[in-house]
Amino acid sequence: MSTTELLVMATGLAAIAWVNWYFFLAGRAAAAVRGSEVVITVDNGYSPATIRARAGVPLRIVFDRKDNSSCSEEVVFPDFGVRRFLPTGEKTTIEVTPPKPGRYEFMCGMAMLRGTLIAEE
Ligand SMILES: [Cu+2]
């Protein structure tokens, strides 16, 4: 293997290591802010559809609705007794506090679009 090939390989490996490190740190940063606020884009589905939170800590969920589908116009959190209309082109904030660790489903008014709030210790 020539010196050039070695250099190219070393550079490639360094780039891969950097990307992994970057996303590892980014993941940790996301974990650090959890428990305060999360933005969910509503566009014929929820993105992200799975969100994580801390049990016992109030979480602000900001629904940013983009689509005009009647399916998306309402979001329901049955465990929290929340049913909220989401105007298209607007951000609607819902605050919930998961009482204990577990999975809390949320969905559209007809239970077709679905998402999960996972509360951790
Ligand atoms: Cu629906």
Explain what this protein looks like in three dimensions.
The chain has 121 residues and is of the alpha+beta class. It has two domains: 1-33; 35-120, Sandwich (Immunoglobulin-like). The chain contains one helix and nine strands, in the order αβββββββββ. It has one helix at 3-33, and strands spanning 37-42, 46-47, 50-54, 59-65, 74-77, 82-85, 91-96, 102-108, 114-120. The protein has a five-stranded mixed sheet, with no helix packed on it. A hairpin with a 3-residue loop joins β1 and β2 (46-47). The protein is elongated and about 65 Å long. Mean pLDDT is 85; it is low at 25-35. The site of copper (II) ion (CU) has 6 residues, from loops.
- From the alpha carbons, calculate the radius of gyration and give it in angstroms: 20 Å
**What's the helix-strand series?**
HEEEEEEEEE
Terminal residue distance: 51 Å
Unique ligands: copper (II) ion
Major β-sheet annotation: 5 strands, mixed
Domains, number: 2
Mean pLDDT: 85
Strand arrangement across the biggest beta sheet? 3-9-8-5-6
| Coarse structural class | alpha+beta
CATH class of the largest domain: Mainly Beta
In CATH terms, what is the architecture of the largest domain?
Sandwich
Can you tell me the CATH superfamily of the largest domain? Answer: Cupredoxins -  blue copper proteins
Described by the principal axes of the CA atoms, the overall outline is: elongated
Task: Enumerate how many helices there are, as a single number.
Answer: 1
Number of strands: 9
Low-confidence stretches: 25-35
Fraction of helical residues: 25-40%
Strand residue content: 35-45%
CATH topology of the largest domain, what is it called? Immunoglobulin-like
